[in-house]
Design goal:
single chain; alpha+beta; 4-stranded antiparallel β-sheet; globular; binds heme C
């Protein structure tokens, strides 16, 4: 009798696990697409602005456009969409919460251990929300505004827009930050 009860509990819990896995897989799929959409909208604009007016112009464009893209994706998608970093530039938007901080630290470790930033991501269900982060790696173009040796005009423009900027001193390949997505279940 007890054995039967135990067995049916076991089957029931196995069924829950099996049921939640495909669900998370489709959430992960949605998050992945959204992260790609964010980068796919921002990066071409950044490159265009750099080509058209140089890095100081591109800083002004980015200051305007990056928050707008985050907000419009949030409004369209039903996900909360933002960018975070352990060394934030936009102090009012990019500071990670506890969970994001821990994931970003993991990302740094994974990158240091040899994983390319583009392949680094993580998702899980936390307190009734599905949360997902995709690392953003430092490419050559990023060094102009996030690297070790900034030009004087870039430094001055950043200071004007972001007096609390921590987002410099990066090297190629490092994790600059992440796109962070969450959805209430
Ligand atoms: C022309 C200068 C410029 C270049 C080049 C640039 N960024 Fe930024 N970056 C900025 C500015 C300005 C912000 C703040 C935008 C805002 O207010 O949301 C920023 C913010 C970010 C953030 C959000 C977190 C934070 O600290 O505010 C990430 C992540 C990021 N950049 C990654 C990158 C990556 C990766 C590259 C290269 C592909 C790159 N950036 C290239 C200027 C630049």
């Amino acid at each position: 009798m007890y054995r039967l009860l135990f067995l049916s509990l076991l089957i029931a819990s196995a069924a829950t696990v099996l049921a939640s896995e495909p669900e998370n897989a489709s959430l992960e799929q949605g998050a992945r697409q959204l992260a790609q959409q964010f980068a796919g909208q921002l990066k071409p604009q950044l490159k265009k602005a750099m080509a058209a007016g140089g890095p100081t112009h591109a800083i002004e464009v980015c200051a305007n456009i990056a928050p707008r893209i985050a907000d419009s994706l949030t409004a369209q998608s039903g996900w909360l969409v933002r960018r975070v970093s352990l060394k934030s530039r936009n102090a009012s938007r990019a500071q990670p919460d506890k969970w994001e901080q821990a994931v970003l630290q993991q990302f740094d470790q994974r990158q240091a251990a040899g994983e390319p930033a583009a392949a680094i991501n993580y998702g899980e269900t936390v307190n009734g929300r599905y949360r997902y982060m995709q690392a953003q790696g430092v490419e050559a173009i990023c060094l102009t505004c996030h690297g070790e040796n900034l030009s004087e005009p870039v430094r001055a423009t950043l200071e004007q827009y972001y007096p609390d900027d921590w987002a410099t001193g990066y090297n190629l390949g490092q994790v600059r930050g992440a796109i962070s997505l969450s959805k209430h279940l």
